């Protein structure tokens, strides 16, 4: 069973993402509301994939991404943000993100997750 860590400060968006992922057959979720908590939950739960928002309280998504990749260079992390500027996308991919999905356009999320898990 694929374990997914959803890091998103908005409860509405976390629940919406879980609903979308459940339609794809995923049911094992871990949730974090900020970058610091995401790192802690990543280390303690070893998820198969992380969905990580860019704009988070306490620690932003890019910093959390960088720290997760330092901890585990094989981490599968998909950035999900409404701030899908070319700069943010390039920075996330440079830091090691597997992919970048612009919220709220999750039509390709299943394919993005499948590709991340198989690479």
TrEMBL record:
Keywords noted in UniProt: Phosphoprotein
Gene3D superfamilies in UniProt: 3.40.50.2300
Pfam families, per the entry: Response_reg
4-aspartylphosphate carried by residues: 53
Biological process (GO), any one: phosphorelay signal transduction system
InterPro entries named among the record's database cross-references: CheY-like_superfamily, Sig_transdc_resp-reg_receiver, ST_Response_Regulator
SMART domains: REC
Domain Response regulatory: 3-118
Protein name: Response regulator
Originating species: Oceanobacillus halophilus
